[in-house]
Amino acid sequence: MGIAKVTEVITSSNKSFEDAIENGIERASKTLNNISSAWVKDQSVIVKNGKVKEYRVNLNITFVLDD
Questions:
Q1: Would you tell me which of 9, 33, 45, 58 could form a disulfide with 41, CB atoms 3.0–4.6 Å apart?
Q2: The pTM is what?
């Protein structure tokens, strides 16, 4: 078994929480190799004029370090 590291990212979407999660993992994968899992730590929304304008997600992303 290798060594894994966890990093936290904050991501957003104007569509949905699911889209925010996908955006965060897609962006993290450009910099981090060997992503193995992600945990949704927190969710929130930005409200403007009584409507949801943005979905925000805090993700803990786990990746395995290269040998």
A1: 58
A2: 0.86
SS3 26: helix
What SS3 string covers 32-49? Answer: CCCEEEEEEEEEEEEEEC
Provide the residue type at 15 as one letter. K
- Nearest-Å Rg of the Cα atoms of the chain is 14
Task: Check residue 63 and give its pLDDT.
Answer: 95
Residue written as tokens 């590291």? 5
Rounded to an integer, what distance in angstroms lies between the CA atom of residue 36 and that of residue 60? 11
Q: What is the pLDDT of residue 2?
A: 81
Give the HSE-up count for residue 14: Cα atoms under 13 Å, Cβ half-sphere: 3
Element (H, E) at 63: strand 51-64
